[in-house]
Every structure is written in structure tokens, then in C-alpha cells.
Amino acid sequence: MATSREESVPLRPAREFRNIALTGFMGSGKSTVGFFLAEILRFELVDTDKVIEERQGRRVTEIFAEMGEHAFRAMEADLVGEVSRRSGLVLATGGGLILNPANRTRLRQSALIACLWASPETIFERVRTQSHRPLLRGPDPLHRIRELLEERAPVYREADLLVGVDFRHPPETARFIADAFLTARQTPGSP
Ligand code: S3P
Q1: N or C: where does the chain have the smaller number of CB atoms within 10 Å of the terminal CB?
Q2: What are the residues facing 89 on neighbouring strands?
């Protein structure tokens, strides 16, 4: 009896790499790296926090305080739905956006997902003088960073690309991601 060998081989669904989504913890440098990456690839930069702030006419902190985190997460999900239909975008995502499984599924359909990985100490150094992150406003931000990072790490680590940024400057990180993206685009079904 003729058997088709191909039929028994599980086929990996082809991924479409039309966009790049940068994920990672607050303060890992997604907006800055996104800026350089968009320059290199001549893509449009979409910074999800900024778009939401512009549309709402208020800062993320105010949205959290006045409407609640749940409302903010719904705005993120709507925006992901919108941008996933587009091409040629670098998405600098808010640090919690990728935690929503629906956002992950949608982003994976259109984008290479690159996570910027920074240690809690690096993050703390970068955010200690800033006050615009509602989730890090408690009395012991370093402890909170460690807690949240540990909780989120399994999801962040699911990215196609995990890039350590403790010892890399943003332009170097951007170049690295651009090269990986261009290679992945030439390899059907990768990574
Ligand atoms: C958040 C990260 C923030 C912003 C909001 C919530 C998070 O963005 O979306 O404060 O849950 O990690 P950045 O990662 O750009 O700081």
C-alpha cells in the first residue's frame, strides 16, 4: 500500500515576518532600540504606550489611576489587533502587553518577537529616577522588579529571540535584531 511519508511529518506552520515586536520588562530599552531598528529597516515605529497616551489624551499613570489597569490592557489588546493587520512596523510594546495570550497569538501571526533581557539591577538603575511607571511606584522598587520579572520570565522567554542588553548599547542591539529578522524572512517557516 502506498503511504505518503509527508503526511506523517508534522508541518510547522509558516510564520509571516511582516513586523518586529520588541518585548521585555519596563526599562529594558524597547523604545530606544525600536527607534534605531526602525531607522535601519526603514520601518515605522509604533510605541504602544505612546499611541495609547495620544489617543486617550493622558499619561499611562493617569489611565491606570482613573480607569484602572483592566481598561489599559483592553486598549493594548485593541491596538495589537489593529497593528497586526499592517506591515513594515517595529512595535515597541509596553512591558505587560505580551502577557495577554491573545496578544501573543496575534503578534506571532505577523511579527518576529524579540525580547530585550535586562537584569533586575540594570532595570532598577534605569527606572529609579523615573516616576511614570505605575507598577513600580511602591516603597521597594528593586524587590518589586525582581518579583514581577520572575513571574513574567516564562512568557518573555517564549520570544523568537532573546537579546541580553546589560552590556549592549541600543544601536548594537538594534543591528543584531535587524540581522536576525532579515535572515528569518529569507527562511520559510523559521525560526
Ligand atoms: C507596563 C509597562 C509600561 C506600561 C505600563 C505597564 C508593564 O511600559 O505599559 O506602565 O506592565 O510592564 P514600558 O515597558 O514601556 O515601561
Answers
A1: N
A2: 44
Does residue 118 register a pLDDT over 80?
A: yes
Which H helix or E strand runs over 91?
strand 89-92
- The CB of 53 under 6 Å from ligand 1? The reply is no
User: What burial letters (b/e) apply to 111-126, b meaning 16+ CB within 10 Å?
Assistant: bbbbbbbbbbebbbee
pTM recorded for the entire structure: 0.91
Would you kindly state where each structural domain of the chain is located, as residue ranges?
Answer: 17-186
Binding site membership of 134 for ligand 1 (Cβ less than 6 Å):
yes
Nearest atom in ligand 1 to 152's CA: 12
Which CATH architecture describes the domain 17-186? Answer: 3-Layer(aba) Sandwich (3.40)
